[in-house]
Amino acid sequence: MRTSSETQRRLGLRIKDLREERGLSQYACAPLLGVSRTYLADVECGRRNVSLATLDSIARGLGISLEELLKGV
């Protein structure tokens, strides 16, 4: 069984991969996602437990569905 911290790490890596695929730095990407750069860094490192509303905002900012964001997490 996967722990919540492992899930947070996997989600963070997924978001980082999607950001990097788009050629965006954390500084450029954070405003598109509606979060601060430090918040995004914490999410990408698995240090933040992200709300569903924030996940939806991140998905929209990346131009994908919430389902696509969570794929493989």
TrEMBL record:
Residues 15-69 form the HTH cro/C1-type domain. Keywords: DNA-binding, Transcription, Transcription regulation. The lineage of its organism: Bacteria, Bacillati, Actinomycetota, Coriobacteriia, Eggerthellales. The keyword Cytoplasm does not apply. One of its GO terms (cellular component) is cytosol. Pfam families: HTH_3. This is XRE family transcriptional regulator. The keyword Transcription regulation applies. InterPro entries: Cro/C1-type_HTH (IPR001387), Lambda_DNA-bd_dom_sf (IPR010982), TransReg_Diox_bact_type (IPR050807).
